[in-house]
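Technical annex, item 7. During the second reporting period the consortium partners agreed on a shared format for inverse folding records so that results from different sites could be compared directly. Each record opens with the tokenized structure and is followed by the designed sequence. A conforming record, contributed by the partner at site C, is shown below for reference.
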């Protein structure tokens, strides 16, 4: 824990370097729904509701929610066309910025049983600190449970002490004990980081590929965040990782994910980062 305390200040400065000067709103194609076994997101049978396409590089990204015949959500995520992933790091007029932010909306019929309002996706072209840990090109994919207007008005948060005392400020406990409070970032919130994944990175024993972060503001859990490197997505591996679960959930009678997944669909020529294995809480 002493090691963590020493690097928290550096992490906070580095995370804060991800400026939201470029906010790319969703909306150049109409929302759509698809019902077909092999064409639904995540190769799950059911109906998939897509959000609007948003241009990224020479391709596009969009949200999606796949539900079964009863309406239960199966897979919730962001879909990247192969063209987007292959060209996202091309030089652009914004290439000098730390990251671009894409504000992605869900299909209006897709989130009735889900806690999510929107996705705020940051493309960190140069990564962010601490040096030697997260400073590689990656995506920060925030599934927010608050409106985007509320998110944009986040300017300060309470300081969280390290160690067990950090959880005393979060009644009821909505952050797993396997996490510790990391940096606060304006227009985002406080980032909680998984200890057993972070320490090997700091020690140089492992290289960052993907992780899962919880976000809070004013003692309230506000976002879930898979953080995935561009290299990991381009590898076209199918990766499913369990999410450490909180003891309580911020919104009742909603479906929450037990896993997050990074997948590639060669037939549809898309990559997906998603929350799946949903259960009602």
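Designed sequence (site C submission):
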């Amino acid at each position: 824990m002493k090691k963590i305390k020493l690097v928290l200040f550096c992490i906070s400065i580095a995370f804060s370097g991800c400026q939201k000067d470029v906010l790319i709103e969703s909306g150049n194609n109409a929302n759509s729904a698809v019902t077909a076994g092999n064409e639904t997101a995540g190769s799950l049978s059911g109906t998939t509701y897509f959000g609007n396409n948003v241009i990224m590089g020479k391709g596009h990204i969009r949200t999606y929610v796949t539900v079964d015949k009863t309406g239960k959500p199966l897979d919730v995520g962001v879909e990247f066309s192969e063209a987007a992933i292959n060209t996202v790091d091309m030089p652009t007029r914004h290439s000098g910025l730390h990251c671009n932010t894409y504000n992605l909306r869900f299909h209006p019929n897709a989130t009735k049983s889900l806690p999510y309002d929107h996705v705020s996706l940051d493309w960190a072209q140069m990564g962010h600190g601490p040096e030697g840990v997260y400073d590689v090109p990656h995506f920060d994919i925030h599934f927010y449970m608050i409106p985007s207007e509320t998110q944009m008005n986040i300017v300060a948060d309470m300081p969280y002490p390290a160690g067990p005392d950090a959880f005393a400020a979060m009644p009821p406990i909505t952050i797993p004990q396997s996490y510790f409070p990391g940096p606060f970032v304006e227009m985002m919130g406080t980032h909680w980081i998984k200890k057993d994944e972070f320490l090997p990175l700091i020690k140089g024993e492992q290289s960052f590929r993907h992780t899962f972060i919880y976000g809070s503001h004013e003692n309230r859990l506000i976002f879930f965040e898979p953080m995935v490197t561009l290299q990991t997505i381009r590898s076209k591996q199918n990766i499913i990782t369990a999410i450490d679960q909180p003891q309580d959930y911020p919104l009742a009678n909603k479906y929450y994910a037990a896993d997050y997944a990074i997948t590639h669909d060669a037939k549809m020529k898309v990559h997906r980062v998603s929350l799946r294995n949903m259960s009602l809480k």
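The helical segments are 2-16, 82-87, 148-152, 195-202, 230-234. The longest strand covers residues 255-265. All partners now use this format for quarterly exchanges.
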